[in-house]
């Protein structure tokens, strides 16, 4: 009966993960906190209604310390003495730059959203995660943030996204090293190029496929994943032509 909290859960990957977790038996998943800045999204509202309280909408704006504190208190009350087992830091942005990198003028804002806010959310929920049985944190990243693979993505002008996801990877490793002795598992995972508002309709995979593949690792958790940079596995994509192969192996840093 694990408990989950997913940020950026109003749409796309976050919403799909929440829906798939909610469809699991109660013996496996008891509560899914779907965190968004605004909780009035129609798709999320429908999911909340359909799941009869298993999915809990959570208004969370980590830019606002009061909002973050209130969200932690709400989760603590709903857990009723239990801990939070799994946190998925999924919220993020991917703006593109018109022209070469010298034209990039949004790095501070993108860094704040993709890295700093993930850190603030993680730090705020650490006391509840310590009380959980799983003690697992999954940070949604991308192979576009891999320095080793950067040559595969020269066609993308999402410079700030690439830079900040590389920083997210380092943030993950720092947490993994600091809290391994407490039994925590922090890992970064790339969900693939998905057909979402962020990824566009020309992307490789349906969002449901990426969500299912990510959740395979998220459900697993455990010390063996701590500090790793994971790539999802999708059958038939192990040796696909083009920049992306979804082979289930660790991605190079």
Automatic annotation (TrEMBL):
<comment type="similarity">
    <text>Belongs to the short-chain dehydrogenases/reductases (SDR) family.</text>
</comment>
<dbReference type="Pfam" id="PF00106">
    <property type="entry name" value="adh_short"/>
</dbReference>
<dbReference type="InterPro" id="IPR002347">
    <property type="entry name" value="SDR_fam"/>
</dbReference>
<dbReference type="InterPro" id="IPR036291">
    <property type="entry name" value="NAD(P)-bd_dom_sf"/>
</dbReference>
<protein>
    <recommendedName>
        <fullName>Short chain oxidoreductase</fullName>
    </recommendedName>
</protein>
<dbReference type="InterPro" id="IPR051468">
    <property type="entry name" value="Fungal_SecMetab_SDRs"/>
</dbReference>
């Amino acid at each position: 009966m694990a408990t989950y909290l997913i940020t950026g859960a109003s749409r796309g990957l976050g919403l799909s993960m929440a829906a798939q977790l909610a469809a699991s038996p109660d013996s496996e998943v008891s509560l899914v906190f779907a965190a968004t800045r605004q909780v009035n999204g129609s798709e999320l509202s429908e999911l909340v209604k359909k799941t009869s309280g298993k999915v809990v909408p959570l208004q969370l704006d980590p830019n606002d310390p009061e909002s973050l504190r209130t969200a932690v208190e709400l989760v603590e009350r709903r857990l009723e003495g239990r801990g939070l087992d799994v946190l998925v830091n999924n919220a993020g942005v991917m703006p593109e730059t018109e022209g070469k990198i010298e034209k990039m003028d949004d790095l501070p804002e993108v860094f704040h959203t993709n890295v700093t806010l993930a850190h603030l959310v993680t730090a705020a929920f650490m006391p509840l995660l310590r009380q959980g049985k799983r003690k697992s944190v999954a940070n949604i990243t991308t192979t576009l943030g891999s320095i080793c693979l950067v040559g595969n993505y020269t066609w993308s002008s999402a410079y700030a996204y690439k830079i900040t996801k590389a920083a997210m990877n380092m943030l993950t490793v720092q947490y993994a090293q600091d809290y391994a002795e407490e039994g925590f598992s922090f890992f970064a995972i790339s969900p693939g190029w998905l057909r979402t508002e962020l990824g566009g309709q020309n992307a490789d995979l349906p969002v449901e496929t990426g969500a299912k593949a990510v959740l395979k690792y998220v459900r697993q958790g455990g010390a063996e994943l701590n500090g790793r940079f994971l790539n999802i596995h999708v059958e038939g994509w192990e040796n696909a032509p083009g920049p992306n192969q979804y082979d289930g192996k660790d991605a190079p840093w």
